[in-house]
Write a structure and sequence with these properties.
Layout lengths: L4 H14 L7 H10 L11 H6 L2 H21 L2 H13 L4 H10 L13 H22 L10
Length: 149
C-alpha cells in the first residue's frame, strides 16, 4: 500500500517535532535516521511513528527526513561540519575509538540515503574525512618530534 502524500507530510512533521527536535545537530539527526533503516531492504521503521500513522507513511517520512539531513550535510560549510562532528564525537564514550573506527571502517558510508546522488555522496564522504582529520588533530595530543640531546 502506498502512503498518501498528506499522511507522509503529517508523519514527517510529527517526526521533526517529537523526535528530531531532541537531537541538537544535523549530523546527529542524519546518523539517527540512518539507524532506522533496515540495511537489507532499505525500508525505514519507527515504532511510535508507525503507531500514529501507517507503517508506509512512517517509512516514507523517515526517508524524506533522512534525505533532508543528507542534503543539509552536503551543503554545510566545512567549519560547521567540523563543529558538528567535534560535538558528536565528544558525546561518545570513547572518542579515540570512535575516530579510529570512522577512519578505518568508514561506517558513515552506509548512512547515506538509498537513492542518494553518487556525486553528493562522495562529496560528503570527502568532507567527513577532512572534518575527522581536523577533529582528530584538535582532540588528540600533538605528536612530539625527537628533541636533540
Amino acid at each position: 500500500m502506498v502512503a498518501k502524500r498528506m499522511d507522509v507530510q503529517k508523519a514527517a512533521q510529527d517526526l521533526r517535532m517529537r523526535t528530531l527536535a531532541t537531537l541538537p545537530r544535523t549530523l546527529d539527526r542524519f546518523i539517527y535516521l540512518a539507524s532506522t533503516r533496515d540495511y537489507n531492504t532499505g525500508m525505514y521503521y519507527h515504532d511510535g511513528l508507525s503507531a500514529r500513522f501507517s507503517p508506509e507513511a512512517a517509512c516514507e517520512a523517515l526517508a524524506d527526513c533522512h534525505r533532508e539531513a543528507f542534503h543539509r550535510l552536503v551543503a554545510m560549510p566545512m567549519e560547521q561540519l567540523v563543529n558538528e562532528m567535534e560535538a558528536y564525537i565528544a558525546s561518545q564514550s570513547y572518542p579515540r575509538d570512535f575516530i579510529s573506527v570512522w577512519k578505518g571502517l568508514q561506517p558513515y558510508r552506509v548512512a547515506i540515503p538509498v537513492k542518494a546522488d553518487p556525486f553528493s555522496a562522495e562529496l560528503l564522504f570527502s568532507n567527513f574525512r577532512v572534518a575527522l582529520a581536523i577533529v582528530e588533530e584538535r582532540l588528540l595530543p600533538p605528536h612530539h618530534s625527537k628533541q636533540a640531546a
